[in-house]
Amino acid sequence: MLKQIISKYQNQFPAATVSAHCDGPCGVYDPSSARIAAEAVVSMTKKLLDLEAKPGDPAYENTFARYVAIKEEQAQITKDELLILWTDYFKPQHLEQFPDLHDTFWKAAKLCSACKVEVSAQHAQELMAAVEKVHKMFWATKNRDITWYTAS
């Protein structure tokens, strides 16, 4: 009886069809968080390369360990932020717009891994370039020209 009443009500007052572009409300996603984390990777890599090696010195060992920990943590944050954009924001229509979308994200994620296990200024800069490319793709899908900038 209750089902019939609900069905009759639904037929008389049908709900409007809605659609959504992404899993969350638009405006949730932003590549800037990946940029900030990637910049920390670059910064920690530079600090590690500039650190004067003093093996056995506790102060040196502690500083080295802290820089490495931060670099690895920020590289993982960069990877997480990129993967969220890749899997949650970008849709098949974006692949038509950017045929190299999957390759761009795959390479960026691989650079995050490389930056975690290495102290490489080259890979850190390549990671920043990859995040910049994602930034441009992301904002192009929104038909917005958002300036790429870095803190350093």
UniProtKB/TrEMBL annotation:
SUPFAM superfamilies, alphabetically? Answer: Nickel-containing superoxide dismutase, NiSOD (SSF109770)
Which Pfam families has this protein been placed in?
A: Sod_Ni (PF09055)
EC number, UniProt record: 1.15.1.1
Enumerate the UniProt keywords alphabetically.
Oxidoreductase
InterPro entries of this UniProt entry?
NiSOD_sf (IPR036502), Superoxide_dismutase_Ni-type (IPR014123)
Which Gene Ontology molecular function entries are recorded, alphabetically? Answer: nickel cation binding; superoxide dismutase activity
Q: What is this protein called?
A: Superoxide dismutase, Ni
| Source organism (scientific name) | Leptolyngbya iicbica LK
